[in-house]
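Provenance and format

Records in this collection were gathered into a single text stream. Each protein contributes a sequence line and a token line. The two records reproduced below are adjacent in the stream.
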Amino acid sequence: MILIKVTSDVTVIGGGPAGLAAGISAKESGAEKVIIIDRNNWIGGILPQCIHDGFGIEATGLSQTGPEYINEYIKKARNLGITLLIETMVLNFNNKLEIISASKKGLLKIKSKSIILAMGCREKTRGNLIIPGDRPSGIYTAGLAQALINLYNIMPGKNIVILGSGDVGLIMARRLKIEGANILGVIEILPYPNGLPRNVVQCLKDYNIPLFLNHTITSIEGKDRLKKITIAKVDKNKKPILGTEKTIKCDTLLLSVGLIPENEISSDAGIIIDSSTGGPIVNQDYRTTIPGIYACGNCLQVYDTVDLLSIHAKIAGRQSAINTLKENNNNINYADKKIIVKPGNGIKHIIPQQINITGMINFSIRVDEPKNSTKISFKLNKNEIFIKNLKYLNPASIINVKVKIPKFSKNNILEVSLNE
């Protein structure tokens, strides 16, 4: 096996929208040599199969399809001279900023001044769920069904049930309805939809697709192909209620039950992972717990829009470039003076989880359940430094709040919570 050795200023692992946005930002911020690595045989992540519009509104004000949105990034990356490596699988990296990857040409060892993690996320499958019953064909993740119909013009089925009201599942309900499928319903275990409100309206209500809240699937039946499923109402502990069962005849089941950030190699490298987000713990610069390594995109946290994902990825890219230009940057002892950010009442998770500087800091916050007319409070060492009134909060939508952080010393706690 041939071992190829190269050097780089910034190396991005993952060539989806976050990786491209971060790589372009790093290049534009002064990094001379930028490499983007992706294991697929294309660049762009999942966006080439997302043919619906709505991309780019937050970033540019223009509504584009996924392919239109990502093609602009790909074109810009190539025009900037960024090296795009496809069909290249990263095997591991370490705290010395050395990356080992494999491709058809052999093993590639990259010594980089900065690394950006942008590996994205993967869909949960039936193996992540506890649903008794048979194991017939006709069960797909929503993303796989999207690839089948949008890229290969293959209908996954005719009579379809969707488990989970995540955004991809909602979008696929509409997409397959337009293609002539009979969408029998979307089943959601929570008492509220798990996707963006606009998708609930545009994909379900506008197409008269039923949404079963507080329900789950209790049985799957079918010898070769899926024949039917059984659903039931659930109690406040999400346990099926006996006597509420209902059988639905169908040939296809799509799973839209959540995403898992891809961070196996991050953990192996010694990066500390936040159990709430499933992504690395980062500071205000999106720097992980290993100096010189940054994280962005869906491997950091699962975003609800690609626009916001790209905006944050650009910050990680810019900071990674600054890291390469200031050789003494890695010598800063972040652990000597920091604020630990702690999610309090009503907060599911918050990024960044650490702060090392004063001034305006942008926080990304996700709440644990819908709320009306509440306040979000920031308390530094139990002293309130910021409070904001909010009319409506939805777990499907990330909240962005900018807060001015005052001077601080050692051993600080910033608690963020909702006040009724």
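Adjacent record:
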Amino acid sequence: MSRYNFDEVIERHGTNSAKWDNNMVMFGREDVLDMWVADMDFPVPEPVVRAMRERLEHPIFGYTFPSAGLLEAIVDRAKREFDWDIKKEWIVFNGGVVDGLYSTLQAFTHPGDEVIVQPPVYYPFMGAVKNTGTQILYNPLKSTNGHYTMDVENFASHFVPRASFPIRVPKVKAFILCSPHNPVGRVWHPGEIKAVADICVANDCLILSDEIHAELLLKGHKHTVTAMLSEEIAERTITYMAGSKTFNLAGLGTSFAIVQNDKLRKDYVASRAGRNSGNLMGMIALEAAYKHGDPWLYQVREYLQGNFDLFRSYIEEKMPKLKVSNLEGTYLAWVDMRELGLSPLDLQRFIREEARLALDDGYAFGPGGDGFQRFNLATPRPLVREALERLERAVKGL
């Protein structure tokens, strides 16, 4: 088995990297250390590169469709990783999870319909809701000493008549679940998901389950596939997955939805007509990763655990005013900086100009995000150490 050197710092400037080549545009200066957008600074598994090189030997790259081998690889992986029995006919390909969410909302909602999200949460969810003419209903997560849970009672309240409009029209058409949750790092327990999913089933509300980080788990945690909780939940759920986060394939623009319900799937496919014929190299990379990428994945999980352990212990020892939420899944650390006493915009300026870090500002993730910063820890450990040292110097200078 190959051993990968994730400590190696690979130069990404000059590669049209959204993460590393847009610092002046995104952050107003070039000297920031990039730990924001969620891609890894690690080389992809060798079998992925090998499969892509083999395909490049053929000089034509025309319109394409998923191979039988790719469909089998997805079915096999669902069974192997989650003990989930799916059929290849349930799989629909998208350019990305956000692309899939747009398609879903366009297919199943109308302007004025309502969609529940649970902030602080991945901010493109809010953009997808607003840009398709639907309305956001917030069900903010509850935090107790940095441990986040879903507010089931408040979730249920969105489906009952309101004092201002006692005859409740069923306007809540969809719920976007982030599982594992970005940015707070929770890996939801089965009972937590089922509590809100059952409410959706009872109210004919679609469950749009973003499970793109399902294989990026830290020690002691297990992912629950929403659609496996009951047959009734499966019939109301569209599950979004990809290899993009797991195997660092984001630039290849390939993801997929799994839709058990035949009617939902037919309408979902119709909403995508003419939009995406498939990314040839993305599909080849995904098949190779799912079939041969596990040794790399086992090593990267171990490395990410080490990065988080270093990150949390360093902050606890040297910057006690900052509080790091426990990371259960993803590689995104969520840090509470409210004790620094800075407004959201002053904190943004402090992080960029004093700490010289390029991070995701917490306020972008919606209610509950003010005063937080999100760190991408999928980067070589020397860079994690440098980021911590920059932050420590800046905090001591306040």
